Structure formats: structure tokens, C-alpha cells
Amino acid sequence: MNIAVDPMIKIEKVKNSRINDVDFDNLGFGKVLSDHMLVCDYKYGKWQQPQIVPLQNISLDPSAKIFHYGQSVFEGMKAYKDNNGQILLFRPLDNQKRLNISAKRLAIPEVPEAYFMEGLKILLKLDSDWIPTADGSSLYIRPFIFASGEGFHASPSDAYKFIISCSPSGSYFSGKIKVLIEEKYSRSANGGVGFAKAGGNYAGQFYPTQLAVEKGYQQVIWTDDNTHEYIEEAGAMNIFIRIGDTLITGPISDRILDGITRKSVIAIAEDEGIKVEVRKIKVKEVIEASQNETLKEMFGAGTAAVISPISAFGYRDKDYDLPKIEDNYGARIKKRITDIQYNRAEDKFGWQYLVE
Ligand code: PLP
Ligand code: COI
Q1: Would the CB of 307 count as within 6 Å of ligand 1?
Q2: Which domains does the chain have, with CATH numbers?
Q3: In the chain, which residues have pLDDT < 50?
């Protein structure tokens, strides 16, 4: 949605920053939030002027619809600082657009582009000292919208809050990950909300993921809900599989999030001369490739996870190890993407967005 709105943003600064209490050497992921947040209310049928305020708790009536009917969507982005102290975003308009695609599916009013982009830029400049510079770290940005309207009637809310909050963060995963290919539970179904970044999609994954964690895996790889024969995506990442010298990833559908990292991986791989196939992948094909030793790599791709190599996968009570290989596509592509994100290399794709 790109209607003409006045992005006049009122700013209330913190009196005392908390930044000196933060241990930037041990950040973890999404644990500590920066000084300010952007807040924008939807009421009386329109989004009101956004404001930037000190980070604070939100007070809601117990009947607020978010608590009962889960009307909420979110985004995940990162801000980086280059060697000259410039603030950079990576393809932020894709996140802005996807937030509204998700919102529409959840019957949430779309947020004007100017509120999102102008608000985010002001917020980042205000909290720019919170952008960590250590390798692999960044300021994780979490834009989200939820139903704040009151009443137990199961119908769309008449009030919403759009908030952007930021967290200086390190890696999402530590080291390689072991995943379990799931056959019983489903993440999404045709006609459902799997393509949206809806809060409930993640809640529904927690229980099956807990079961996988108890068995020694970190993540579940979802298969299609109909046959459970095809690989779909992981809890917070799209999945790439290298068989021989071909990189394969499943097609986007109603059930799969259209990942921005996924699109970037495909473009970079093609630019590197790597053969990419976007097509359905049978679990059987991956098992066979593992058995005949043509399965070379599996990795997840996502904003939080960046490119996360998979060391092994489990399927029907058996584990399959991925080999250690020399010319690793995942590592090569990760370097190209992160070099663009941190402004260490030329960006021939036009993905960098300088916050001025
Ligand atoms: N799939 C799911 C379910 C996710 O939550 C994410 C994370 O955002 C992704 C894929 C990767 O998307 P992106 O690369 O846009 O972060
Ligand atoms: C992201 O990669 O930004 C995500 O939203 C994943 C999240 C569930 C941690």
C-alpha cells in the first residue's frame, strides 16, 4: 500500500540510554532491545501518525483480540554498519511489502509504506549506536502488527498496533544444525496462511519442534501436508539442497514463505554460474542422493539464520550425515551475501539500502 501520507513522526527520546549495560560481546539473538521503538495505532478506520518513544511495555485489555484470535503478523530484517559508520539495510522494501501481504491475509489493515520506511530510518538513526559491528552481528529489526481492539466476538479487530523494535544480535544458530524431516505434523496447508509471516504459524510449530529437540535435532524440515513426500521449508528458513553440482529449492506456494534470503541465494548462485533448479524435491530423492553419495550440501536460508549449514538430517528413525566438501556452495554464497550486507563488496543487484 503506497497512499500519500504525511510521515510526520513525533520523537520522544530516552532520558538515560541503557546501552552501557549491554554486553556486546555476548549478545545472543533477540534478547535485549534498543532504547527506542516506533509505535503507530490504527483506530477510527485509519493508521494514525507514528511516534518514536522510549522502549516500554504495552498495556492491553484482557479481551484484546490478539490474545484470543491471534491476529498478528511480523517481519524480520537487519541493519548493518559498514567500516565508515554508514547504516545499511538489505532489500527493506521487500520486507515492507511482505508485511502488508501477510497483513491482508490476516484481515489486518495494510500499513502505509511511508510510515514503515520513514519511521524505520528515523528509528535506526536514533539507535545507531546499538548496531553492533562485530563479524556476524547486526541490529535485528522486528516490525509487527497485532490486534489491540477489544471484545470476545470472533471477528477482525477495529484497532491495531504497528510497532518496530530492534535488538542488537549475534548468530541465530551456533554451529551446524541437525534437522528432522517431519511426516506427522504439518506447518501449513493449501489455502492457509503458510505464506504469511503470521505469529500463529510459529506457535503451531513449537510442539513438533520440541519433540524433535528431545530426539537431538534443532529444527524440523516440514513436508507437504497432503502426501508428506516433498520437502517444503524449515521453521525459520527456506531450504536448499545440493545434489551433484545442482542447487535445488522448492517452489514458493500458499504453504511456503517467499524468503528474501532465498531469492538472494538463487540470484547469487546463478551469478556464480551454479546450476539452480526451483522445483519440488521428494524426500526419497534426497535419501537416494545420500545413499549414492551425490548429496553434497543442505543449508537453510533466512534473515535471522543467514545461511545455516545442515550437518545431518533424520528421517524415519535413521540419521543421514552430510559430507564435508571442499567447494562449498553455501559458504560461497554466504560470503557474497554478507559482503553486500556489510558493504564490503560491490552490490551489482541493487539490494543495499543506505539509511541517510
Ligand atoms: N521461512 C520461514 C518460515 C521464516 O520464518 C523465514 C524467516 O523470515 C524464512 C523462511 C526466510 O525468510 P527471509 O529470508 O525473508 O528472512
Ligand atoms: C527471520 O529470519 O527474521 C525470522 O523472522 C525468523 C524468526 C522466526 C526468528
Answers
A1: no
A2: 10-169 (3.30.470.10), 177-341 (3.20.10.10)
A3: 1-2
